[in-house]
Amino acid sequence: MHQDIDGNGVGDVCDVTKVCGAEAITPNGDGINDRWVIQNLQNYPNHEVRVFNTWGQQVFVAKGYDNTLDGSLKTNRAALPRSSYYYQIDLDGNGKIDFDGWIYVVREN
Ligand SMILES: [Ca+2]
Ligand SMILES: [Ca+2]
């Protein structure tokens, strides 16, 4: 049985120590993956998260990411288009990326 850290009734795909996040954001208000939750990131207080669109433009950056990215820009709440996005996470804030990957913003319409 997996632990359910974010309390959404779905067992976590990650174990309790590894940092990992959902692969998709589905901002349709159904409570499932409406926000991009990265588990165990709170264990690294100096972390920095950056998200880029496929053109390489930074669309999101956070020091101390609070798991609230919901598929819209933090600055003006403009909805991010349905697309894949590249993210980088620097766990200890030393400027060296510790891991990266892709997330997908999925919209039904
Ligand atoms: Ca959803
Ligand atoms: Ca680092």
Index terms:
109 residues, Immunoglobulin-like, 5-stranded mixed sheet, 7 strands, binds calcium ion
Query: Strand order across the biggest sheet?
Result: 2-7-6-4-5
Total domains, how many? 1
Strand content: 25-35%
Q: Which percent range fits the helix content? A: under 10%
| Rg value | 14 Å
* Average pLDDT metric: 86
Q: What is the CATH class?
A: Mainly Beta
Distance between the termini: 34 Å
Order of helices and strands: EEEEEEE
Give me the count of strands.
7
CATH architecture: Sandwich
CATH topology (level 3) name: Immunoglobulin-like
Topology:
Elements (H helix, E strand, L loop, with lengths): L19 E2 L2 E2 L12 E2 L8 E5 L5 E6 L19 E8 L8 E7 L4
The structure holds calcium ion (2 copies).
Tell me what you see in this structure:
- The protein is mainly beta.
- The chain has strands spanning 20-21, 24-25, 38-39, 48-52, 58-63, 83-90, 99-105.
- The protein is built from no helices and seven strands.
- It has a five-stranded mixed beta sheet with strand order 2-7-6-4-5, with no helix packed on it. A two-stranded antiparallel ribbon has the order 1-3.
- It is globular, with a radius of gyration of 14 Å.
- 20% of the residues are buried.
- Bound molecules: calcium ion (CA) (2 copies).
- Residues 26, 28, 30, 32-34 line the site of one calcium ion.
